[in-house]
């Protein structure tokens, strides 16, 4: 199954689970109605049952695809059938937890499958830049030695007909590397990428910089000898940040991927600017034009986080501990704002990619996300 089909199947399960919860709640209300001596389904229960009946055929197909085992049995029927007989659920004397256990197991399998798909796509993503550098890294024999260390062994054919299909022996070798890589397990893929990238880096300082630059542009780094993906911005993070900041955060992520450090820091600061502007207007905090970036962040945070100290005390914190925490938090964020402000004002003087500054730009985007998450508290 590909990603779209996997997500679609998981969403069917989630929708079914939600309807099932509604069904049990409404059924309980029908049973608890003291004015009616016997069980009589309400119109709402009938509506939910109708929606469930619509989903049941899809549910069976989806659960079959993940080879969900229907092993729960009793004297009145097996678990594959109970979904078709929800209106008579009490006849089967099954705990409703049994229903949810089946569905959660299937959802869990789809979640695991999606995780594997994500990892596979990310590893495939980094293979491209490495393969683009590999052909120029030496002779065909040199390339064969490099990939052999990574766990892929390929012999070159002598038949001209075969070579003609690919254009050259070098093109044939690159195609076969891709094909054999796809057959490796996820663990072996990671090992292959790491070893090949390291071997290319050893050729010369020039190739080391080529590898670093190519993988950093798609969000990867060598950290302590390991290939690590560095997520500048995850889609799930945006859901927890003020909507007004989204365009600039996305712009910052795109610019850092393109190697535009100045543009990335500018967009990161812009995402915070958009939120401080809204807070200044909401609380009437004064003239935005007269305040520095650091000052706007500091005043906005003090305004929004004003209740924090009291809330911590309500949670059982000692007064002095809550006060110290509040002061330390504001101080740390104030310093982060100063660094972002300084980088933005000086980044125009930077020509080319300065590797010493790049981590600070990454950090600035993370600081922006932290500041925004707190400024978004209402």
Summarize the structure.
With 378 residues, the chain is mostly helical. The protein contains 16 helices and four strands.
Explain what you see.
This protein is mostly helical. It folds into 3 domains: 3-94; 136-229, no CATH class; 235-375. Helices cover 69% and strands 3% of the residues. It has 16 helices and 4 strands. The strands form 2 sheets. It has a two-stranded antiparallel sheet. Strands 3-4 form a two-stranded antiparallel sheet. The longest helix is centred in the N-terminal third of the chain and has 38 residues, at 96-133. The two termini are 42 Å apart. Mean pLDDT is 76; it is low at 67-94 and 349-356.
Task: Name its key features.
16 helices; mainly alpha; 69% helix; 378 residues; two-stranded antiparallel ribbon; two-stranded antiparallel sheet
Oligomer: single chain
Order of helices and strands: HHEEHHHHHHHEEHHHHHHH
Structural class by helix and strand composition: mainly alpha
How many DSSP-defined strands?
A: 4
- Number of contiguous helices: 16
Instruction: Please state the CA-atom Rg, rounded to the nearest Å.
Output: 29 Å
Poorly predicted regions? 67-94, 349-356
Question: Helix amount, in percent?
Answer: 55-70%
Residue-averaged pLDDT, rounded? 76
Largest sheet: spatial strand order: 1-2
Strand content: under 5%
Number of domains: 3
């Amino acid at each position: 199954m590909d990603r779209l089909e996997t997500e679609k199947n998981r969403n069917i399960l989630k929708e079914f689970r939600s309807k099932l919860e509604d069904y049990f709640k409404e059924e309980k209300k029908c049973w608890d109605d003291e004015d009616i001596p016997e069980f009589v389904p309400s119109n709402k229960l009938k509506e939910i049952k109708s929606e469930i009946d619509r989903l049941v055929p899809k549910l069976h197909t989806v659960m079959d695809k993940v080879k969900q085992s229907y092993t729960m049995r009793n004297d009145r029927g097996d678990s594959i059938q109970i979904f078709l007989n929800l209106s008579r659920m009490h006849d089967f004397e099954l705990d409703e937890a049994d229903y949810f256990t089946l569905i959660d197991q299937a959802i869990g399998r789809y979640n695991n499958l999606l995780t594997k798909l994500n990892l596979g796509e990310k590893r495939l993503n980094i293979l491209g830049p490495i393969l683009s550098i590999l052909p120029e890294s030496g002779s065909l024999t040199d390339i064969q030695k490099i990939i052999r260390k990574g766990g892929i062994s390929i012999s070159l054919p002598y038949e001209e007909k075969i070579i003609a299909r690919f254009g050259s022996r070098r093109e044939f070798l690159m195609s076969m590397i891709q094909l054999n890589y796809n057959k490796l397990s996820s663990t072996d893929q990671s090992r292959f990428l790491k070893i090949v990238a390291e071997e290319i880096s050893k050729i010369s300082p020039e190739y080391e910089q080529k590898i670093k630059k190519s993988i950093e542009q798609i969000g990867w780094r060598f950290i302590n000898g390991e290939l690590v993906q560095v997520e500048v911005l995850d889609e799930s993070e945006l859901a927890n940040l003020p909507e007004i900041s989204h365009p600039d955060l996305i712009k910052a992520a795109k610019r850092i991927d393109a190697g535009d450090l100045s543009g990335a820091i500018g967009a990161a600061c812009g995402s915070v600017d958009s939120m401080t502007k809204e807070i200044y207007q909401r609380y009437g905090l004064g003239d935005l034009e007269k305040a520095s970036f650091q000052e706007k962040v500091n005043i906005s945070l003090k305004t929004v986080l004003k209740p924090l100290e009291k809330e911590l005390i309500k949670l059982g914190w000692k007064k002095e501990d809550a006060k110290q925490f509040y002061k330390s938090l504001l101080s740390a964020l104030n310093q982060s704002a100063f660094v972002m402000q300084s980088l933005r004002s000086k980044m125009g003087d930077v020509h080319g990619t300065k590797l010493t500054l790049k981590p600070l730009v990454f950090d600035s985007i993370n600081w922006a996300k932290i500041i925004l998450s707190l400024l978004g508290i209402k």
